[in-house]
Amino acid sequence: MTDLFDAGPQSGNRSPAPGRLALVQAFENSFYDLGEQRGMDHFGTREGLADWLEKRGFDPGEVSDADLRRAVAVRDGLRAILAEHNGAPRDAPAFAALREAADGLPVAIRIDDDGETWPVVLGRGVTGALGLVVAIVHETRANGTWRRLKACPGHHCGWAFYDRSVSQTSTWCSMKVCGGREKARAYRRRLTRDREPPRPGRSR
Question: How much is the pLDDT for 35?
């Protein structure tokens, strides 16, 4: 069984998100496994979603097609917000789908004797797990760690990574992979542009 707050292997050997935010990071990165099932979208099927939840100690019960659609809508909507954290414009359709999918999820915040707060699961099954994810997002918005979770803008990437830089300006999940590829693409674009014949009336 995987620990509930284990973010799993990280692209570029980055450190995972701290504390409970690691569950949200793992949830976001369920679309592309870096472990033994590399490249697998765990939410590609109802069975895959159930297996992912069971390994983290949830009791998903019988996962329906509606459960799967809801989980994917929450995941994709949150990733759109993570892309915003990295400078992307608002993805209005994804955000609207997230709001609809999150409506009515069972969420609670527990407070201990010292005033420490943490989210707890109220519901069962998929909705309970999604409620916990959304509660953690709310919790980490308050403590300032949420904005450090970003989606990599690399071509066909979108990996959720935690930006630990002091300036919070990290862009790529891996500078050697996505960052290096983007530099190579930019270099090829410059070469192509420089090789273009001058247009009439255009000076170089």
Answer: 63
The whole-angstrom separation of Cα 150 and Cα 169 is 10
- CA 94/CA 36 separation, integer angstroms: 30
pLDDT grade for 54, boundaries at 50, 70 and 90: very high
Lowest-pLDDT range, 17-21, 84-88, 109-113, 191-195?
A: 191-195
Domains of the chain (ranges; CATH) run 11-195 (1.10.3300)
DSSP for 87-121 reads: TPPP-HHHHHHHHHHHTT--EEEEE-TTS-EEEEE
Widest distance between CA atoms in the chain = 76
Question: For residue 191, which phi and psi values (nearest 5 degrees)?
Answer: -60, -45
